[in-house]
Amino acid sequence: MAPVSLGSDAIHNVGDGALIALAFATSPLLGVATVVAVLAHEVPQELGDFAILIDAGLSPLKAAAANLASALTIFLGAFTGLFLGSAAEGLLQGLAPVAAGGFLYLALFVLLPALRRHSLHQGQAVRERVLPMALGVGMMAMLAFAEARLGLDHGHVHGFEAPETRGSTAWHPSGS
To answer: Which one of 10, 24, 79, 108 is at 20 to 30 Å from 164 when CA atoms are compared?
Structure first.
């Protein structure tokens, strides 16, 4: 499981690096918001990766070193994003399914069985599993709200056209 965890994380970090570089190239404020978003999801994910590496039999020092090596691929992504510019979007679209597949595999075949082995009392389950997840979702929602308030949202959901580009039949909150 250690190679899958490290490989998926390395690919994911390349994508994060490219996103950060492209965000800073667009706007320093958008770059900072992107760094905050990346940190918000990277810190818990890296802790999970560390736990997977320890569970796979690595010593804490080797697990930390391997996790650091995987994390440093963010710089490869940043340099790639700066070098390729907007053409890096195609790279990101290709990397995302590979990283997501690795993470899904780890979640379903490593983490979920481990959670099932460690049964918790009802109060513990809420405090140790539901509350951290709710806090993470809440933090990402607050970041999305802050981005929208600062004008950093880019006005579309991936895979859908923005309402303004659909012509005069689009619904607008003002009623026009």
So the answer is: 24
Better-scored residue on pLDDT, 79 or 113: 79
Sign of CA dihedral 82, 88, 93, 99: negative
pTM for the whole structure: 0.65
Q: Report how far residue 138's alpha carbon sits from residue 136's, in angstroms, rounded to the nearest whole number.
A: 5
CB within 8 A of 137, min separation 6: which ones? none
Query: Residue 156, by phi and psi: left (phi above 0), alpha (psi -120 to 50) or beta?
Result: beta
Which residue type sits at 91? L
Rounded distance between C-alpha atoms, residue 64 and residue 103, angstroms:
19
Query: Tokens 């379903």 correspond to what residue?
Result: 108
The residue behind tokens 């009802």 is 122
Q: Using CA atoms, how far apart are residues 111 and 162, in angstroms rounded to an integer?
A: 37
Q: Three-state SS for 93?
A: helix
CA atoms within 13 A on the CB side of 139: 16
